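WARN no homologs supplied; continuing
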Amino acid sequence: MSHYYDQEPQSVSNERLISFEVCGTKVTLYTDNGVFSKTRVDEGSLLLLKNVIPLHLSGRILDLGAGYGTLGLSIALTSPEARVDLADVNMRALRLCEKNARLLKVDQRVTCLQSDIYSNIEGPYDSIVVNPPIRAGKKVTYQMYEGAKQHLSDGGSLYLVIRKAQGAESASKYIKELFGNIALLDRKKGYLIYQARKETN
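OK structure emitted
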């Protein structure tokens, strides 16, 4: 069985365009079979975007587990000072990221990287955004949180969304242990938005 966190999904390709609006900006993206949330942008990603876009993130930003680019490309589109790396293990998703970056005309500020978690990632980043692939299991998602601290600049932040029913409480405790802090920015329909800041040494 093919999963969205496989390197090469086996499902037959069927590209389509989807559109959504976040913080007053319309975003149109190509999606396909074999990627996460292929028919519409999931509510968790939308809630995360509604919290981070008003922050006008700048500098280097990493969208880890980017899928077809929902988080990172929306940030690139609304934050012209940002340079965004989109990373995913799924090659089909990355091809969509590249296509979508061109569609949104942000490709000059976007880099797409094939990476198994942080295997091909070089920091430091000012911000890391993650909608973790819960179905891939704790071993994967907790490595995302661990590596975030190592790949952030001092003062940089990890922003993520987790569903309450999918282990938000235990994950937030773990992240607080890693970073020494965690803030709940928002919650809606069982989705929780967190920020953890890498404190300056």
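The CA atoms of residues 71 and 157 lie 15 Å apart.
OK
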